Amino acid sequence: MAFVGTRVVASRFFGAASKSSPARRARCLRSCPTVRRPALQTARHDGVALVQMSATSEPLTLSEASVEVVLDELRPYLMADGGNVSIVEIDGATVRLKLEGACGSCPSSTMTMKMGIEKRLRERIPEIESVVAVEDAGEQPSSEGVEQVLDQVRPFLKIAGGSIELVSMTNIDGPAPVVNLRLMGTGAAIQSVKVEISSRIRRRFPRIAQIVFT
């Protein structure tokens, strides 16, 4: 019965991450501008008139202002799922953007950028040759920071009859930091526990390349 209880506790806390991923992807796809087009009418967002999203819209000249006009058409759909997008740089015919909030960590962020935002920008501004997503390097990985993340998880692991400890961190200052963890107890057999712990660590430290459980 203890094992069954472990499954129940883990599914309530850790299982949400793995089981909700398909649902979250579905929400992102529904909100992606290529999937859910707005009605052909003028709306307003933050006091800025949004251009009608019509196939007959006049082409725009490439500039920061015109890119913002197109992004303003898309922002209501990104913001509906807790995300946003901002211009990082316009370099010749290349536009560099940063997905923010929930969109930045969403599993469908690549599709949102390529099939949604980039497609719409190139439709409205034919001069654009490519749209590049710029990733946030995030916080510098540290053993103290990883321990703080693990401290958030430990109470739930304890209820489920498990524990976790940081064994080591390698290549912290290099391009591909690695975190080695030891997961013990019955919780160690549940894959969703590992997925949730890895997800929490990577959300705080995007530079971490690999998380190894022993």
From TrEMBL:
Alphabetical list of SUPFAM superfamilies matching this protein: Fe-S cluster assembly (FSCA) domain-like
Record family assignment: Belongs to the NifU family.
Organism name: Cyanidioschyzon merolae (strain NIES-3377 / 10D) (Unicellular red alga)
Lineage top rank: taxon: Eukaryota
Recorded GO CC terms: mitochondrion; plastid
GO molecular function, one term: structural molecule activity
InterPro entries xref list: FSCA_dom_sf (IPR034904), NIF_FeS_clus_asmbl_NifU_C (IPR001075)
Protein name: Similar to iron-sulfur cluster scaffold protein
TM helices/strands, residue ranges: none
Domain NIF system FeS cluster assembly NifU C-terminal: 67-132, 146-205
Source taxonomy: Eukaryota, Rhodophyta, Bangiophyceae, Cyanidiales, Cyanidiaceae
